[in-house]
Amino acid sequence: MTTITNHENKYRLTKRITCARMVKIALQFKANLENVTDFHIESFDDFIWYLKLECTKCHTPSDTYHDINLRQLSSNLNIEPSKPSMNYTSDDADNHTFKTVVIFDCRGIEPIDWQPGDGWACQGVESGTKFSKIDLSENKEWMDYDEKAKEAVTINELEFKFVKVK
């Protein structure tokens, strides 16, 4: 039996609902970048997706976040094979542009909430300093200091949305 469970094993979705129609849902986000650019997922294959899911048949949402990576996906939730190589740049931030991070193939379940977690990276606009292992778990923001450029660097005001795609 295929299941998706959270780490507390409170919420289960079984293979019985895989006969549901497949829906593609894109996770898009935008953020404010200060003195950094090329904001992206550091390693797509190892990235943990923290998602709250809802059963589309019974409309029962999960009450906790599921921590799912590429190796744990099932026939109910999968990542579209063509992984976007998404870099959110300072130009995108200046234009308040939403960009697609990932597209999920969903059968019988849909994501309803997302926490960005850790595993992000970016670089200084002026210095090119690489910042890795960025953790956005707390308040969906990050701050550091770029020694080469002698300025504060920040990612904040992170917003996201789920969009159905064809």
Automatic annotation (TrEMBL):
Q: Which GO terms describe its molecular function?
A: zinc ion binding
Keyword Zinc in the entry? The reply is yes
Name the source's superkingdom. Answer: Eukaryota
Enumerate the UniProt keywords alphabetically: Metal-binding, Zinc
Q: Which Pfam families match?
A: CXXC_Zn-b_euk
Which InterPro entries did the record assign?
CXXC_Zn-binding_euk
Record-stated family: Belongs to the UPF0587 family.
Protein name, UniProt field:
Uncharacterized protein
Which species does the entry assign this protein to? Rotaria socialis
